[in-house]
Amino acid sequence: MEKEKKKSVLIELKKVFKYYFMGENVVKAVDGISIKVNEGEFIAIMGPSGSGKSTSMNLVGSLDVPTKGHIFLDGEDISTFSESDLAQLRGQKIGFIFQSFNLIPNLTAKENVMLPMTFQGIPEEEREIKSEDLLEMVELGDRMNHYPSQLSGGQKQRVAIARALANDPEVILADEPTGNLDTKTGSIVMHFLDKLHKQGKTIIMITHEPELAEYHAEIVYWLRDGKLERTTRKKKGKRYVDGEIKRLVKARK
């Protein structure tokens, strides 16, 4: 039988700390976490308000650099990269989907999707064709020339998904992708994320909703007070907390 190909590590945080200094006080937003994201996985970073998940998202997405520790993206230690180098790397490797959509209000849906490609120097004709294809993919072919104010919340989030895919990134980072949506519309958005995952994209989702994390993600990193509290893994339809499998085997002996 042919051996299953080992997945390569795309993103890794090694004992990462992020402190904010406010006068004499130190806020330990992230306090020594280690997270690994392999190629093709669906990861969720989960936690209540103040747990450090938003800061973790910024670190995982190379939107910020750590106070201490190392962050690797495709094997490169980006902890000491300049902002311009980080921006270039982000544009090529990571597509972002934000809770508040972050669409440019005076650009149409099509122009919003074209924007990331502009920063990568892709020719205009190619940008137009690809943006139209992506909007068709998220079932917004009839809304290409609409402005964000003319779109519903679910439509805006689908434009954001199309924009995140503009440069064909290896990783999609979704920050509370259903946070501003009703249940039905949120389910539609999650359907698209699941579809992207099945097509081979690596998905990292930040959420405070346990049901969302456990239903869709293969691995859930649970944060509390800036620390990694536990890791939940799903295998063959079941979820195991790290170490639980060993305990189950031991109990059967």
What report would you give on this structure?
The chain is α/β, with parallel strands linked by helices and 253 residues long. It has one domain: P-loop containing nucleotide triphosphate hydrolases (Rossmann fold, 3-Layer(aba) Sandwich), CATH 3.40.50.300. It is 35% helix and 30% strand. The protein contains eight helices and eleven strands. A seven-stranded mixed beta sheet has the order 6-7-8-3-9-10-11, sandwiched between helices. A four-stranded antiparallel beta sheet has the order 2-1-4-5, covered by helices on one side. It is globular, with a radius of gyration of 19 Å. The two termini are 29 Å apart. The C terminus is likely disordered.
In short:
The protein is of the alpha/beta class. Helix content is 35%, strand content 30%.
Main attributes?
253 residues, alpha/beta, Rossmann fold, 7-stranded mixed beta sheet, 4-stranded antiparallel beta sheet, 8 helices, 11 strands, globular, disordered C terminus
What fold name goes in the CATH topology slot?
A: Rossmann fold
Radius of gyration: 19 Å
- Give the assembly state of these chains: single chain
Low-pLDDT parts are 236-253
Return the CATH architecture.
3-Layer(aba) Sandwich
**Spatial ordering of strands, largest sheet:** 6-7-8-3-9-10-11
| Average residue pLDDT | 87
Largest sheet: 7 strands, mixed
Q: What's the level 1 CATH class?
A: Alpha Beta
Helix content: 25-40%
What's the number of domains? 1
Order of helices and strands: EEEHEEHEHHHEHEHEEEH
